[in-house]
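Propose amino acids for all 481 sites.
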């Protein structure tokens, strides 16, 4: 069996962390099994659709690297992939249910339906359809059909009493008392099909083998399972992902869950870090490893290790994860990712040697966009602290000697690379009779305005020869070449 999973968002806005987690699991699971990941757009609730909603979803998924094998833009053998275009499939399924006696037309008026309302155990109103139209005679049906507006179509829940048995790969077997399931509507009188019906027709048509989604949909399994049964198709594996709570353990607030993928992209999160972070909301690695590349996630994912316990959204952990992924990127990739974020007006030289610049600052970054917060380490503002540190060094003859020797050596060194620069600085400082802090402190002050800071060789590499010599020269009052 080829594994086929799907992500089925409604185009009601951009993807956010709360709803894209299901896409991450479906994608990882399909890739793990060498199967297909299908994208389906559930756009039947036209009042809630937003303009550009579908394009936004496609963009967000692409940016996250969750590529789909079939979908509204690329097509595929089981299309169309937008619910709004699948009317033929729904009509055929309604016909099949009617013919098999597994559905029936319902002519009840709103007032009649209202009269089905009773008070539930908790005092709240419960409306459960009485089954009034299920037992109409053929003659009564024919008469009502002629007389009134088009009927709704209801699913005839089979049997009486007992439980409907359902299985979930995460939450185990569940049984739902049959009387809790009334004969639900599959097609409204205005012709629109309902979610629980359309989803099953689509999952059948798209040959979905595993339905992986948030636990909010767990309560939909009974109805959906009955529709699969009635249409004579095997139920897929259902796997519901546990609840995501907010950081304080309370219900996820809109703000926490609604971190839009697009916003995270705009501040410069690495997409791999987001995929990794979301994969841990409900699943754990067999060796409890947390920082995992995409390939490692694909290799390790399994439904067996998805837990039922609630998980928590933790922005600090997401930011930590960003840093962990940035730490493992090659310098070339990191430089390419950071480049578009650099504020070139504030830091005009930063792009000249962007690889060397990110080499100095990478350990401080949890997003690419944070580069601007740390660039002042290399390009300090001319504030008082910087000037007084410089004045102190300029007034110290030993420090000035070190800077002169180092300046001479730097004028000639080749190649201009961090390791080479470090050793050249050490040797030149030694020739001036200094070592350790006696070299590094004055040189850092000359270069970045502070005796402490990142590795000197890396700072020099990031500044480039001309800029580094310019800064040393400035502190010496022009005495060095
Ligand atoms: N359109 C539904 C949602 O966004 C999909 C539900 C499902 O996966 O079955 O929640």
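Proposal:
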């Amino acid at each position: 069996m080829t594994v086929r999973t799907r992500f089925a968002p409604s185009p009601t806005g951009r993807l956010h962390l709360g709803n894209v987690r299901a896409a991450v699991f479906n994608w990882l699971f399909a890739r793990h099994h060498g199967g297909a990941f299908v994208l389906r757009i559930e756009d039947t609730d036209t009042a809630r659709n937003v303009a550009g909603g579908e394009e936004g979803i496609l963009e967000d998924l692409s940016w996250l690297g969750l590529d789909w094998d079939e979908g509204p833009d690329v097509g595929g053998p089981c299309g169309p992939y937008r619910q709004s275009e699948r009317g033929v499939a729904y009509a055929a399924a309604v016909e099949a249910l009617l013919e098999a006696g597994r559905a029936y037309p319902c002519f009840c008026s709103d007032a009649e339906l209202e009269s089905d309302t009773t008070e539930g155990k908790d005092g709240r109103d419960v409306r459960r359809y009485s089954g009034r139209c299920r037992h109409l005679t053929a003659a009564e049906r024919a008469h009502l059909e002629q007389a009134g507006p088009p009927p709704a179509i209801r699913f005839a829940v089979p049997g009486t009493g007992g439980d409907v048995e359902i299985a979930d790969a995460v939450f185990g077997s569940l049984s739902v008392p049959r009387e809790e399931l009334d004969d639900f509507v599959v097609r409204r009188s205005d012709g629109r099909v309902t979610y629980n019906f359309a989803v099953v027709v689509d999952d059948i048509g798209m040959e979905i083998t595993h339905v992986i989604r948030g636990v909010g949909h767990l309560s939909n399994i009974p109805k959906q399972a009955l529709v699969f049964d009635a249409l004579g198709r095997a139920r897929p594996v259902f796997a519901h992902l546990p609840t995501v709570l907010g950081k304080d353990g309370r219900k996820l607030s809109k703000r926490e869950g609604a971190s839009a993928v697009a916003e995270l992209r705009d501040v410069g999160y690495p997409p791999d870090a987001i995929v990794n972070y979301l994969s841990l909301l409900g699943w754990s690695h067999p060796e409890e490893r947390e920082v995992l590349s995409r390939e490692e996630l694909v290799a390790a994912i399994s439904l067996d290790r998805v837990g039922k316990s609630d998980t928590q959204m933790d922005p600090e952990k997401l930011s930590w994860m960003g840093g962990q992924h940035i730490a493992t990127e090659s310098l070339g990739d990191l430089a390419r990712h950071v480049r578009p974020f650099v504020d070139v007006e504030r830091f005009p030289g930063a792009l000249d040697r962007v690889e060397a610049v990110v080499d100095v600052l990478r350990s401080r970054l949890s997003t690419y966009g944070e580069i601007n917060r740390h660039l002042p380490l290399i390009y300090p503002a001319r504030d008082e602290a910087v000037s007084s540190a410089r004045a102190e060094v300029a007034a110290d003859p030993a420090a000035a000697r070190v800077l002169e020797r180092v300046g001479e050596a730097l004028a000639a060194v080749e190649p201009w690379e961090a390791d080479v620069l470090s050793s050249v600085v050490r040797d030149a400082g030694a020739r001036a009779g200094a070592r350790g802090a006696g070299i590094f402190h004055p040189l850092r002050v000359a270069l970045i305005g502070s005796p402490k800071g990142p590795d000197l060789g890396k700072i020099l590499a990031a500044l480039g020869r001309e800029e580094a010599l310019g800064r040393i020269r400035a502190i010496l009052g022009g005495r060095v070449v």
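The chain has a mean pLDDT of 94. DSSP finds 21 helices and 13 strands in the chain.
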